[in-house]
Design brief:
By secondary structure, the protein is an alpha+beta fold. Helices cover 23% and strands 42% of the residues. The chain contains three helices and six strands; from the N terminus they run H-H-E-E-E-H-E-E-E. Strands 1, 2, 3, 4, 5 and 6 form a six-stranded mixed β-sheet that branches.
Length: 139
């Protein structure tokens, strides 16, 4: 059986830890999953989605910018549930400290969220939420 971190970068694993540890968020969602939820999982839930990393080096420091997207999925007929979840996620991550093994966390910044309805499934609400995380390691 795989661990919750299978396939996650250290930054994504740190985000996962913060989200699953929060009692308020745990009352709002069924779970937080890597990439996709298990078949038949009821909504609402959060998926840890794609991430990309780019170097952000300075004199004597190896820096990195990691951009990761979380996906909030909801069946609620309206935006109240999904946007409340997004608000909680932002409160937990935006400009809050992260513990990332092997890295010094500099800052996590909220970049955007977007409310979406799938034309084929108008009963679903989807809100991608993107964060940029800056880290460094001594050279």
């Amino acid at each position: 059986m795989s661990t919750p971190y299978a396939g996650l970068s250290p930054v994504q694993a740190a985000i996962y830890d913060v989200l699953v540890a929060d009692e308020d968020l745990s009352e709002m969602v069924v779970g937080v999953f890597d990439g996709e939820a298990p078949e038949g999982t009821p909504r609402p839930y959060i998926l840890i989605g794609d991430a990309f990393e780019v170097p952000d080096n300075a004199h004597g420091v190896f820096g990195r910018q990691t951009v990761t997207t979380l996906h909030v999925w909801s069946d609620y007929r309206g935006w109240r549930e999904a946007t409340a979840i997004v608000d909680r996620v932002c409160a937990l991550l935006d400009h809050q400290p992260l513990t990332i093994p092997g890295h010094q966390h500099i800052v996590t910044r909220f970049e955007f969220s977007q409310t979406l309805i799938d034309a084929d499934r108008p009963d679903l609400r989807h809100v991608p939420v993107r964060f940029r995380i800056l880290t460094s390691r001594e050279a």
